[in-house]
Amino acid sequence: MNIHEVNPGAEAAAGSRSSRFRFNRRQRALGAVALAGLLVVSVWAAGGLMSADPLATRLELRNSAPSAAHLFGTDWLGRDMFTRTIKGLALSINVGMTAAAASVVIAALMGLAAALGKAADRIVSWLIDLFLSVPHLVTLILIAFVFGGGMKGVVIGIALTHWPTLARVIRAEVLQLRTAEYVLISRRMGKSRWWIATRHMMPHIVPQLLTGLLLVFPHAILHEAAITFIGLGLSPHQPAVGIILSESMRYLSTGMWWLAFFPGLCLLLIVRAFDMAGENLRLLLDPRQMHE
After folding, report:
1. Beta bridge partner(s), residue 80
2. In angstroms, what is the C-alpha Rg of the chain?
């Protein structure tokens, strides 16, 4: 028997293990995405359906520790911290998802613009390098300040600062597709560059855009909470998580730990859930990872 002869049984078993591994990874990725989506939808719906009565000032209940009646305790004005936290997370989700979606649209347009010609590609590359050379938070604060702060300023600031990394990925994909045979045939047939970009290239970059949305969303929430925490984001009258954490800092030294612990933990759970979902989806859609 030739020692170099392939064993059909071993080859079939290896193929079966590889197929089972890819199936398990697909299940894990889709499960992570579904869990993150369910978590966000639940918080968003709960924030919209909750009554505002627990947010009324009740001084007789102020500074109450967590209990069955008040799961997250109450603050220095007797307001229920569980209600404040859920409504704050719902507001942060609205801001984060709107800003992330706008950022993904900008990244898609910038990436597709690279297919319009060398001049457009040079301009897109220069803009990507320009925005990546400045820290996100600094640019975000400047843009939010220019647009007057508040929800509008925060959304515009996040949308204009979180697109470069995704746009670089889209640009690389577009430049690779630009030399594909079917693209060259379309050019010879007289199709415009924009027609080619939207009809031939856009379907190929949709998976990257979906993954980018999942990965940009947690960054958008964290940066919204960060600039709100330092007083440059949403209005203090809105129940944002950044405002809750900022107000709680002055009371931590008196032992009121629940004012910062539960809102911070809930924010961390949502961010981590979407971060894991985005990473799993990226690995699932990456053809190089699929065959490892």
Report:
1. 74
2. 24
What would the 3-class secondary structure string for the chain be? CCCCCCCHHHHHHHHHHHHHHHHHHHHHHHHHHHHHHHHHHHHHHHHHHCCCHHHCCCHHHCCCCCCCCCCCCECCCCCEHHHHHHHHHHHHHHHHHHHHHHHHHHHHHHHHHHHHCHHHHHHHHHHHHHHHCCCHHHHHHHHHHHCCCHHHHHHHHHHHHCCHHHHHHHHHHHHHHCCCHHHHHHHHCCCCHHHHHHHHHHHHHHHHHHHHHHHHHHHHHHHHHHHHHCCCCCCCCCCCHHHHHHHHHHHHHHCCCHHHHHHHHHHHHHHHHHHHHHHHHHHHHCHHHHCC
What type of residue is 92? S
- Which neighbouring-strand residues pair with 74? 80
Say how far apart CA 30 and CA 222 lie, in whole Å.
24
Higher pLDDT, 281 or 100: 100
In this structure, is the dihedral angle defined by the CA atoms of residues 222, 225, 230 and 231, taken in order, positive or negative? positive
As a whole number of angstroms, the distance between CA 87 and CA 83 comes to 6
Tokens encoding 220? 């958008």
Q: Which pLDDT score, from 0 to 100, does residue 10 have?
A: 46
pLDDT tens for residues 9-38? Answer: 544 444 454 455 455 666 666 666 676 667
Q: How far is CA 199 from CA 112, 177, 191, 203, 204, in A?
A: 11, 12, 10, 7, 10
For residue 267, how many other CB atoms are within 10 A of its CB? Answer: 22
